């Protein structure tokens, strides 16, 4: 199925979890400074391994940059 | 020894908070951070680039705490979600709340700001809102439970210093929470003036990061914050319309050439 990861259409297997999507991006699941929102709602780090994504989901993966 | 700035019960290492935006690279940021003596630094959240080095490594190495911001948010809803993402990412309840209302001036959107502040306070955040120099809005932000207020001196990155010292001084006089000047500093004297007016701290990014020599400017502004604080505590003299001699007139010698001869002189 296709999901949007940071605005880019991405093929992921059926039943893929947030943790799986992050692994595809080469982001370690313990990475500090990383947060995830699906369809505009924050998914807590503790739920990354249990939260499955659905076809068409907008997944935003954010990290720290200089600013402010 | 000067008393530390305390926000939400937490003493900060310095009255200067460093904004990390605008530094050419992480090495210059690290050097400026050390020169500034700051113990708290802002960071922003954007779509993750897995190949970019993490600014958190720089901040961890320097031993400074992170103050995430909601820069780029134009609605209360976006700001609240960004704050929640920041809480997940950085494991801190502290948030520098920015809700912008205009993309040229980057001035705060007062109604959206107040709504976001109230929502985040209710959700347990320690909210430090970037606000205008309006004393009434600052009071409203304090009333909904913000831990500090961060008024601008002039627009973000403008370097125009404090444009309305009167309004800022009234805001400070009425505030029951720490006041941190959050935008407009262009050089050291602006930071000193903020502290002399009674600000509890200064947040500075562009004036340092975009200076010709950011590391030296970090030292200059850190010194200015300290000098301004000392001057405030020491108490400045009142302004007068005319001069007031600092040397007394009493005891001036008579140096007249053509004056009358003194009694008893030949």
Please describe what this structure looks like.
Helices cover 10% and strands 35% of the residues of chain A. With 68 residues, chain A is mainly beta. Chain A has a single domain (2-63), classed as Ubiquitin-like (UB roll), CATH 3.10.20.30. Chain A has a five-stranded mixed beta sheet, with helices on one face. The mean pLDDT of chain A is 92. Chain B has a single domain (16-48, 55-233), classed as Alpha-Beta Barrel (TIM Barrel). In chain B, helix 1 (26-36) packs parallel to helix 9 and helix 5 (135-143) packs parallel to helix 6. The interface between A and B is medium-sized, with 25 and 36 residues. Strand 5 (58-65) of chain A pairs antiparallel with strand 4 of chain B.
- Range of helix content of chain A: 10-25%
How much of the residues of chain B is beta strand, in percent? 5-15%
CATH homologous superfamily grouping of chain B: Aldolase class I
Summed up, the helix count of chain A is 1
CATH architecture descriptor of chain A: Roll
Record the SSE blueprint.
The complex is a heterodimer of chains A (68) and B (266).
Chain A lengths: L1 E4 L2 E4 L6 H7 L9 E5 L2 E3 L14 E8 L3
Parallel strand pairs in A: 1-5
Antiparallel strand pairs in A: 1-2, 3-4, 3-5
Chain B lengths: L5 E2 L2 E2 L4 E4 L6 H11 L3 E8 L7 H8 L2 E4 L7 H15 L3 E4 L12 H13 L3 E6 L3 H9 L6 E2 L13 H10 L5 E2 L6 H10 L3 E4 L1 H4 L4 H21 L32
Parallel strand pairs in B: 3-4, 3-10, 4-5, 6-7, 7-8, 9-10
Antiparallel strand pairs in B: 1-2
Helix pairs in contact in B: 1-2, 1-9, 3-4, 5-6, 7-9
